[in-house]
Structure formats: C-alpha cells, structure tokens
Design goal:
single chain, 448 residues, mainly alpha, Rossmann fold, Serine Threonine Protein Phosphatase 5, Tetratricopeptide repeat, DNA Cyclobutane Dipyrimidine Photolyase, subunit A, domain 3, 3 domains, five-stranded parallel β-sheet
Length: 448
C-alpha cells in the first residue's frame, strides 16, 4: 500500500484530527507528518505569533516520537509536491482552509500535485461545522448571527474523531530546516503551547470555570474565561472536542454560543473575502474618520488617560491576549471616541494577539465599528467608565495593569481625573466621552 502525506497547518494536534484519520486509512505503509514554513505566512507573522507557533511545532514534533515533524521551507506548491514525489505518495491530506489566502494556496497546491497524479484530499476543517454548510432554506447564506445560531444547532456536528493510536510515521529524509526557534519578545509572557497544554487547560476550565461562565465571563479582574482561543487558533484542540465536553445549563449554553460566533464569522468571511479589510456594509466606506496621529500611538501604548482602555492595551502588549469584554471597550474607544478607522485597530491586534484569527478579529472589529453584520450597531457606543464600573467594580483589573493607579481608591480608580490631586504619573483623558459620542453619531448621520 502507498505512503500518504499529512500536511499540518492550523491543526497542530493528533487527537480529533479527521485529516489524520483519513491519511492513516490511505497510507497503509505509513504517513509523512509535514509542515511547510510558508514565507507568505511565516515572514509576515509578528514576533508573538511566530514564537508561539514555533513552540507548538516543537511540541507536535516531540509527540510524533523518533520520526518527528518533517519541516520544509518555501512555496507550498513546490515543497509539498517535492515531499510527495520523494516518498511516492498517492495522496496528500489536509484540513480544509477557508481563509482567502488558504483557499488560493490550496488551489495552487492541488493543481501542482495533480500534474504528478497525486490527490490533495481535504477532510474536516478548523470548525465543528465548516463554512458553507449552514444555509437558509432557500440555499442562501446567513448574514445575521441569531438565525445562523439556530440553524447551526439544528445542523449539529460529528463526534470527535478517534485518536491515532496505530499511527505509523514515516520520515522522507532529513528536513530542509529545523523546527524554528523563534525568540519571545522581551517582556511577553506566552501561554504554554501544544496539544497537551490545550487539553489540560480545557479540563481545568470544565471543572472549575464552566459552571459560572455565563455570569463571570465579562469580569476581567477575576478572568473566568477559558483562555482556549489561542489553542483553537492553532488547532491544538478541535472545537468538536470542546462541544463534546459541554452539557446543559447556562454556562455550557453561553460557551456553545461563543463557539458558534467563531464559526459564524468564518462563514461570513467565506462569503465575502473582501470583508477582511473592507466594510461589510458598503456605505461605511465613506464614513469620515480622522487621520491617525499621536492619539493612535497613545491608544496602542495604553496611555489614553482612560484606565480600563489603558489596562486592556497594556495587557495586550504583556500577554499577547486581552479579555474579550475589554477588547470591545478599547475597540469602541478607538472608533467612536478617537474617530479612527477600525482597520487601524484590527491591524494592531493582528500584530500582537497570539490568538489572532482573521475572521473573528476583523468581524468583531466591524461589529464594534457598526459596519459589520449586526443590524444597527453604530448606536452602540461603549462608555468606558460605565463599562469599567460595571465589569471591574472594585478596580482589580485596572490596578493590575495600570500601576500608577494602584493606590487610588475604588471610588475614583476609573475616573482619576476627578480627584482634587490626580496621580502625576498618569495622563489626563485624551477626550471627553460625552462630546465624542455626539460627534460619532453626527458622522454616522452623514452616511445614513
């Protein structure tokens, strides 16, 4: 029987990996575990993401035993074909990629393999339900989350794939490169990468955090979130594995809904690849935005003078991650208080988030900016002080990330500028929220 090739991409795991199961069935004489360092992706990846990916690849390579992960560098259309021909493979197996670049790349690789009689076999995807599978009764695609969610639940998903206890790994010879040893940026604390860490984190969350998730997930000071986004981003665990661990109750329902949002935005991007950088609602292309200057830099560095905004931006720089509620607050502040285009914020998040996912990042930014799939969200202008008082009531989150305010009382910690003698080391607010809210709505009226 022939050898097959399993080309890992956003599925850096062995458990619940449908493409691996298919590769094992096709490769009776063994499977080559391949990863391609694609310059289009690797060179463009910012240091935080590159460092995490390198750690995840090393973890996967260790789990493959003595064979290890076969790593090559270069254009996938050339490198994948080269490995397949070297071992005489009849098929190369992948999980489907629904990103704009991934789809173009896979078409090129499939065509190149086809010239040599080798099939590119797509099995599964990074989603419980792949983009395009959930459709309306008339065959159209959903553009609003609530009906999508109902249809997604009705569609359902398969149980997790079996673990590959009988995998026979094959090496095609010395790799062209070693698993990269990317340096972690100074001061950045990354989570432990890899499938084992993902499984451990999930089990801990199910045991200790899931029950309270519905009521506690919006509180950044306590941080009762699962922190699974980075593991999902790199495919160190599959969403079906998470769904299989959910039961009934408010916590499970809230978490299931969050997983569905991730799949909805993947479906939205699959419908309109241009929406990665263009507004979903075309009218917003003519929205009047300010030209970035020092205000953008102050936002990036966490020195806007608005404590909860600064806390979130500093957490991003320190951890490559930010609490989801705070992501919404800082995004609203950029777009509707500073009047800067959402693309500036989306680009900054892409540079620093270790869990950066194109579909989720871009369309969550569009949701906040009011130009996305939500019906009429531009009127939703987050008041950062009100949000902070509601979700960080005692100021724990702000004090953790803004040490200049560590000694400020709870009464004033979210509005230190109201103190008779504000902390000299902390800047005054860049803007007055009430005034900028009125200005944001005025600009919206211009494009209605």
């Amino acid at each position: 029987m022939p050898i097959s090739v399993l080309w890992f991409r956003r599925d850096l795991r062995l458990g619940d990996n449908p493409a691996l199961v298919t590769a094992l069935e096709a490769g009776g004489d063994g499977v080559v575990p391949l990863f391609v360092l694609d310059p289009r992706l690797w060179d463009a990846a910012p240091p935080p993401r590159r460092a995490y990916l390198a750690g995840s690849l090393r973890d996967l390579s260790r789990r493959l035993g003595a064979t290890g992960l076969h790593v090559v560098a270069g254009d996938p259309a050339r490198e994948v074909v080269g490995v397949a021909r070297r071992v005489g493979a009849a098929s190369v197996h992948v999980a489907g990629d629904h990103t704009p670049y991934g789809r173009r790349r896979d078409t090129r690789v499939s065509d190149a393999l086809g010239e040599h009689g080798v099939a590119l076999v797509r099995t599964g995807s990074p989603y419980a339900v792949a983009p395009g599978r959930v459709t309306r009764r008339d065959g159209g695609r959903y553009q609003v989350f609530t009906p999508y969610y109902a249809a997604w639940l009705e569609h359902g998903w398969r149980a997790p794939a079996r673990d590959p206890y009988d995998a026979a790994w094959v090496s095609p010879g010395p790799p062209t490169v070693e698993v990269p040893d990317a340096e972690v940026p100074y001061g950045l604390a990354l989570p432990v990468p890899g499938e084992v860490a993902a499984r451990r984190r999930w089990d801990e969350f199910v045991a200790d955090g899931l029950g309270d998730y519905a009521t506690e997930r919006d509180l950044p000071g306590d941080d009762r979130t699962s922190r699974m986004s980075v593991h999902l981003r790199w495919g160190e665990i599959h969403p079906r594995t998470l769904l299989a661990g959910l039961g009934r109750g408010p916590g499970s329902e809230a978490y299931r809904r969050e997983l569905a949002f991730r799949e909805f935005y993947a479906d939205v991007l699959d419908q309109r690849p241009d929406s990665a950088w263009d507004p979903w609602v075309p009218a917003f292309a003519s929205m009047a935005y300010d030209t970035p200057a020092g205000d953008l830099e102050a936002w990036k560095e966490g020195r806007t003078g608005i404590p909860v905004v600064d806390a979130g931006m500093r957490q991003l720089l320190a951890q490559g991650w930010m609490h989801n509620r705070v992501r919404m607050i800082v995004a609203s502040f950029l777009v509707k208080d500073l009047h800067l285009a959402w693309q500036h914020g989306a680009r900054h998040f892409a540079e620093h988030l270790v869990d950066f996912d194109l579909a989720s990042n871009q369309h969550n930014w569009q949701w906040v900016a009011g130009c996305g799939t939500d019906a009429a969200p531009y009127f939703r202008v987050f008041n950062p002080v009100t949000q902070a008082k509601k979700f960080d009531r005692d100021g724990t989150y702000v004090r953790r990330w803004v040490p200049e305010l560590a000694d400020v009382s709870t009464r004033w910690v979210h509005e230190p500028w109201l103190l008779p003698d504000p902390p000299a080391s902390y800047p005054p607010p860049l803007v007055d929220h009430a005034e900028e809210r009125r200005e944001a709505l005025r600009r919206y009226e211009e494009i209605r």
